[in-house]
Amino acid sequence: MSEDFIAKYGDARLPRYTSYPTAPKFADDIAQSDYADWIARIGSSPASLYLHIPFCRSMCWYCGCHTTITERDQPILDYLDVLHKELELVSVAAARPLDVREIHFGGGTPTIIRPEEFASLMTSINDRFDVATNANVSVEIDPRTLSAAMAEALGASGVTRASLGVQSFDPVVQKAINRIQSEETTALAVGHLRENGVERINFDLIYGLPHQTVRSCVETVLASLAMRPDRFSVFGYAHIPSFKKHQRLIDEKVLPGAAARNEQAEAIAATLVSAGYVRIGLDHFALPEDDLARAAARGKLRRNFQGYTTDQCENLLGFGASSIGRLPQGYIQNEVPPGVYAKRVASGSLATAKGYRMTPEDRLRAHVIERLMCDFAADVSAISIFHGFHPDHLLTANDHLRSMADDGVVAVKDGVVVLNADHRFLVRAVASSFDAYLGEMRRTFSKAA
């Protein structure tokens, strides 16, 4: 990417578009009664479950998640009691056992809980929902805290995929982000998982961290390749200290600029592609036989709050503090502070704090943005007609898109928008051309490149 393009587009603060509208648009005019009604309308339509475990033993300074640091187990045990209760409340609201095809445990650190507690959660889910025998069950893991006993429990509970946080193996970078994690620790965790039948492994890497260089990024990838994960998620560090105050512990003076970040991203991509991984969307890579690569090849790739996914369910139910759900009617977010969340559920109410009711135009724009983020192309005219709008509805007077076309970032012909292959890291900037609400909340997001 040229310096001119980085200067013009790369420094813009833009969403990652894991949803549209994005979370800052959510408001408190969506009540728990609305959510209960939406759940009741799911019927026989397949659903996905997301369970949020918002606890860690220590804070990683780059973290952008909702999490609580605790050295004691009691707050976690109390939280799990509430989570079981919320599963019961949602199952009652559904009026019939929901057809569950996908389950994802996120955090924080989901494997901070004990093996028997994880098994109990899975039992609770299976008792209350109709979980498909071939359901995908995934869990996010901090390799530093994964025990052999927990790996055994994950395998016995039917976990099919594990996503391991790696970020960087450079000790200088690790010290600057307060996350010391050796290659040996990571390899041990991978070994424990595979020994217990959890064969599908993801690694999460981050570029743009303090003191990070192209060389250190490539060295991290090479060390990771020795463990041969099926997928890599490669994210640019989002430095928003006004939103996450612990990020103030990171020295901004040693953060790489937009040009350096782009060099790091491209070096990581080149190394992974040369090792046989398929580049998927903005920031994912997978072996050719992986489900994600196959979905991308068929044009069936989707995008949700976990990033790129093969999940085709239109119903995503979120459980736990701060979790977000998505249903055909719109989005729902639970109370964020664990204490407030617990009180709501203990009272017998769904934990709804806010949400967003989709309009027909929101659905149109969401469809276009998702295809751009997944395919780097979108037939805007055809999608508009599908949603009942004029083919030119989103293209007429779209000055931002026209500017990007003039610069050669995209080509627009017969209502089809296609990104130039050399500028795919600007896909968020292109997607933002179709975001009707961006100007209201731009400061909330990370830089586009």
Verbal overview:
This protein is an alpha/beta fold and 449 residues long. It has two domains: 1-13 and 359-449, Arc Repressor Mutant, subunit A, CATH 1.10.10.920; 22-319, pyruvate-formate lyase- activating enzyme (Alpha-Beta Horseshoe). Helices cover 36% and strands 22% of the residues. The protein is built from 15 helices and 21 strands. It has helices at residues 3-10, 32-40, 74-94, 115-128, 148-156, 171-177, 183-195, 214-225, 258-274, 291-297, 338-346, 360-375, 380-386, 399-406, 427-431, and strands at residues 13-14, 47-53, 55-56, 68-69, 99-107, 130-141, 161-167, 200-207, 231-236, 278-280, 284-286, 302-304, 307-309, 315-319, 324-327, 330-334, 352-357, 377-379, 410-413, 416-419, 446-447. The chain has a nine-stranded mixed beta sheet, with helices on both faces. Strands 15-16-17 form a three-stranded antiparallel beta sheet, covered by helices on one side. Helix 3 (74-94) packs parallel to helix 4, helix 3 crosses helix 11 (338-346) and helix 4 (115-128) runs parallel beside helix 5. It is globular, with a radius of gyration of 21 Å. The N and C termini lie close together (10 Å). The mean pLDDT is 94.
β-strand percent reads: 15-25%
From the alpha-carbon coordinates, what is the Rg to the nearest angstrom?
Answer: 21 Å
Q: Strand order within the widest sheet?
A: 10-11-9-8-7-6-5-2-14
Mean pLDDT: 94
Principal-axis shape: globular
Assembly category: single chain
Look at the structure and give the CATH class of the largest domain.
Alpha Beta
Helix content: 25-40%
Number of strands: 21
Largest sheet: number of strands, sense, barrel closure: 9 strands, mixed
- From the 3D structure, determine the CATH topology of the largest domain: pyruvate-formate lyase- activating enzyme
CATH architecture call of the largest domain: Alpha-Beta Horseshoe
Number of helices: 15
Q: Structural class, judged by helices and strands?
A: alpha/beta
Q: pLDDT below 50 for ≥5 consecutive residues: which ranges?
A: none
CATH homology group of the largest domain: tm_1862 like domain
What count of structural domains?
A: 2
N- and C-termini, Cα separation: 10 Å
